[in-house]
Every structure is written in structure tokens, then in C-alpha cells.
Amino acid sequence: MTGRWVVIAGERYQRPSDFLPRRLPVEDEPIRPCPFCPGRDDDVVASYGPPGSWVVRVVPNRYPAFSGSEPMVVSHLGPVFTQAPASGLHEVLVLSPEHNSSWADLSETHAGFVMEALRDRMAAHAATPGLRYSQAVVNCGREAGASIEHPHGQLLSMPFIPGEAANELAGFARFRGNCLMCATIDAEEEAAHRIIFADDRVATISPFWGGTPYELLILPRRHNGNLHESDSRDLAAMGSAVQRALAALRGRLGDIAYNVMFHSAPFRLTGDFHWHVHVMPKISTRGGFEMGSGVLINVVPPERAAEELRAEVAAAA
Q1: For residue 78, what are the β-bridge partners?
Q2: Of 51, 69, 172, 248, which has the fewest CB atoms closer than 10 Å, so is most exposed?
Q3: pLDDT profile of the chain (317 residues), mean per 10
Q4: What is the C-alpha separation between 166 and 172, in angstroms, rounded?
Q5: What pLDDT does 29 receive?
Q6: In what order do the strands lie in the sheet with 152-158?
Q7: How far is CA 106 from CA 28, 96, 238, 245, in A?
Q8: 3-class DSSP state for residue 280?
Q9: Contact in structure between 137 and 260 (CB atoms under 8 Å)
Q10: Is 316 helix (H, G, I), strand (E, B) or coil?
Q11: Which of 278, 274, 264, 279 has its CA nearest to residue 181?
Q12: How far apart are CA 178 and CA 182, in angstroms?
């Protein structure tokens, strides 16, 4: 997908301490009152849910990584010192009024509201002059980067295309004759043993090139570069697929930390892309070899992960 090699070393999985549930509390001293719990209604950008109540809401991030509308003008302070204003937008999607829930606990309708909020805000960011890319993420657990326990996601929009997105774009450009993600769905369904769940709108895969244990790739079947331009039924199916994937991971691995990352095409892209979702459990640590070389070592073969997670999906059905 990005041109990077990974090492599959399934025999290393015999070590008993490889995977442990998360142990660090997100908040050393819990925030009171929680800024995302009901009752704090200031600065709400948008709300979603039944009339008279909300199940998902969007608020500005109080400590934004990107803010302001200053043009991205690069300045050089020296031969190796280059900087530019961190202009852009940074918002928080509060996924539920319930402080101790997670996306794995959402109903199908509720997960659909999450995707509706993500679509609407990404569309608004795409229409903002000067912005080129939006990255939506959900961090659950301190090991995954969360600083507040309450279930939430973040949408960060910036005036440049970041490196990971550029690497994926290059992967699409190298793959001649067909869309890389459409071909992935076809090939994985033909192989049959890395598909965890699939219906007529989405496919959840333990990808052949997975670099970390139980890494998942969730793909809409309909080819579309931009999440915010997708069919509402595809978005609802994606919300449900993310819920099912996270519930299966919890059933197999326990209370783990994880990241969910939504990769959509850069705004006004002229090349090929197919939006998708990465689910990355934080159950292992990258060692010096991996950080020094950029080559990931996955101790759980994707085929084994898919078999185990299929069993969890079937048990929950």
C-alpha cells in the first residue's frame, strides 16, 4: 500500500507477555467536570441525534494543533531551518453523551450519526480556502494518545498533504490498471482467509501487508476518493463496520487501547484514491529495529488474526 516491507514472524507470538490489556489510566486525576459530558453547551459547532437531545456533537478543540487562516508561506531561517504557519482547523467529535462508553458500544443508528457528523464537518473543511487535507482519528486509551476518557474523535485540517497520505497516494499511482483498494477487496475475497466481515457495502480485512498485530483495514465497496462525498448508506455501513470491528477486538483481546484513522483523498485531488479506515490496536511496542529501519515486525500472521476475529463476529451475531 505504501511500498514498505513488513516482517511476519508468527513464531514470536509464543512469548506470554506480548499482549497485555491497557493498564495506564487516561487521566491521572480525572477532569471534573468532563468537558464532553452533557451540560456544557458552549461553543457547540453541530449536534446530531433525535429531536430535543444529542448523541453526537462537534466542538472546537480548546488546544488546537492547527488554527487560523494565515496563508501557508514557507520561510527559511537557515540552511536546515524551514517553517510555516500551522494554519487550519481542529475540532472534536464527541461520540456519545455516555462518559464510559466507546464506539464498540454504539448502536447501528448511533454509529451512523458519527459518520454523518464526520461527513458534514469534513465537507465544511474542504470548502475552507487554503486547506488541502483532513485527518480524522479516534484515539482510545492513553497508549493510543487519548488525554480524556470520554469517547471522542478529532478532525484536523491543514494546508499541506502529510507524509502518510503522500505515501498512500504514491501507492495508488504505482498500481496501474485498477484502483488499489478495489483490487484489494477482489483479491482478498478470492483468497477468502483474511476477510473478517463483508456485506454489499463494506469489507473488513486483516490485510496481507498488516505490519502490527490485529491491524484492520475497512473498505467501502463503492469507489470514491472522498469520505465527505460518499453515499449516506455507505457511510452508515462504515460506522456499523467500525463498531463491529472494535467489538471483535475487545472480545478477543480485552480492554485494549487503539487508534482508528480515516484516510480520505486530499481536497481537489486529480489522481486516483479510494477512502478507507485503518484500525490499529496498541498492544505491542515498536523496538529499536523497527524505529531505526522503518520495517515493522508483526508477530500475528494476518490469517490467524482474521480467523480469531471472525469467530468473535460470529459469536456476537
Answers
A1: 81
A2: 51
A3: 90 62 62 81 88 92 95 92 95 96 96 98 97 97 91 97 95 90 96 96 97 97 96 97 98 94 94 96 91 94 96 94
A4: 10
A5: 61
A6: 46-48, 56-60, 89-94, 152-158, 133-140, 258-263, 276-281, 216-220, 202-205, 195-198
A7: 26, 8, 13, 12
A8: strand
A9: yes
A10: helix
A11: 274
A12: 7
For the chain, give the number of residues.
317
| Cα–Cα distance, 153 to 238 (Å, whole number) | 15
Look-up: residue for cell 469520505? Answer: 227
- Residue 177 CA to residue 199 CA, distance in Å, equals 25
Please, are residues 23 and 313 in contact by the beta-carbon 8 Å criterion? Answer: no
The CA distance from 70 to 73, in Å, is 8
Cα(229)–Cα(63) distance, integer angstroms: 29
CATH classification of 6-60+84-316 is 3.40.605.10, yes or no?
Answer: no
Cis peptide before 301 (omega within 30 of 0): no
Q: Which residue has 531561517 as its cell numbers?
A: 77
Residue 28 has a pLDDT of 56
CA-CA distance, 21 to 258, in Å (whole number)?
11
CA distance 149 to 142: 9
Strands 46-48 and 56-60 come out as antiparallel
Cell matching residue 187: 483479491
Q: Is 307 exposed, middle or buried (0-12, 13-18, 19+ CB in 10 A)?
A: middle
String of b and e for 164-203 (b: at least 16 CB within 10 Å)?
Answer: ebeebbebbeebeeebbbbebbeebeeeeebbbbbeebbb
C-alpha cell at 73: 508561506
- Give pLDDT, residue 13: 66
Task: Specify the 3-state DSSP secondary structure of 91.
Answer: strand
SS3 assignment, position 105: helix
